[in-house]
Design goal:
about 250 residues; alpha+beta; Glutaredoxin; 2 domains; 5-stranded mixed β-sheet; about 10% strand; disordered N terminus
Length: about 250
């Protein structure tokens, strides 16, 4: 049977809207055309790979656009919530925010690389978002860190944060007492603060922000207006910062 849509298949694939009217085909014509498409793709699988690559690029661009819009929408809560630790250079030209959990293996893996990035660059404003999502030990650790910040200030919080990021083993009340003793902290005052409404509110606000931004895992980073989900090697972080400065 001679088909009414007899055109080179490559032309049909390149411009299907112009070359074909699928609604005008008979069932037999549609079956024959489907067989031609299948045969062509089997003989030229690179076409399918190219199409998948284009689709993935478009999806990534759309996701990046959506993420940037979310960062703009929640900018105050992300960059200036009034309670999150701000380190590095508070007046830096690039702000990096990290949503983290002390029980997260990938957070621990990223920790030295984040530290190296901030220290080595010298012009990065670094914000830590306590985001305990991996169970009661995560919550206990975050309550301890936040309570320490409220009782003893940012410098002591950073010591506690570093210690907990490097901590191996279960995070228990006894383990936190040992951490407090090693750092010369007032554990009684910190313990009293840990279950305060203020600490509970901070964790709740961070969780609400993460939920609004569709953040479901740790670490998640915000590099200015770019949301980066998951572990990022130090070299890639440096590239992101350089690209932002070049914009």
């Amino acid at each position: 049977m001679k088909l009414r849509f007899a055109l080179p298949l490559t032309l049909a694939l390149a411009s299907p809207a112009a070359a074909l009217d699928l609604d005008a085909m008979t069932p037999a014509e549609k079956t024959a055309f489907g067989a031609q498409v299948r045969a062509y793709l089997l003989e030229n699988p690179e076409v399918l790979q190219e199409a998948i690559g284009v689709l993935q690029d478009r999806q990534q661009q759309a996701q990046a656009g959506n993420d940037a819009a979310m960062v703009r929408a929640f900018g105050n809560a992300i960059f200036d919530d009034g309670h999150s630790f701000v380190g590095g250079n508070p007046d830096g030209d690039i702000t990096v925010v990290e949503f983290m959990d002390y029980r997260c293996g990938f957070c621990k893996r990223a920790f030295p690389e984040v530290q190296a990035l901030v220290a080595g660059d010298g012009n990065i404003r670094y914000i830590i978002k306590e985001f305990p999502i991996l169970g009661e030990q995560s919550v206990l650790a975050s309550r301890f860190a936040i309570a320490t910040q409220r009782i003893a200030g940012d410098a002591t919080y950073k010591e506690v944060h570093n210690t907990l990021m490097e901590f191996n083993g279960d995070i228990t009340a006894q383990a936190l007492v040992r951490v407090a003793d090693a750092l010369g902290l007032d554990m009684d005052a910190i313990t009293s603060e840990m279950n305060s409404d203020a600490v509970t509110t901070i964790i709740a606000e961070n969780r609400a922000l993460a939920d609004a931004m569709q953040i479901t895992g740790t670490p998640t980073f915000v590099f200015e207006d770019q949301l980066v989900r998951g572990y990022v090697p130090g070299a890639q972080m440096e590239q992101l910062v350089a690209a932002l400065r070049a914009e």
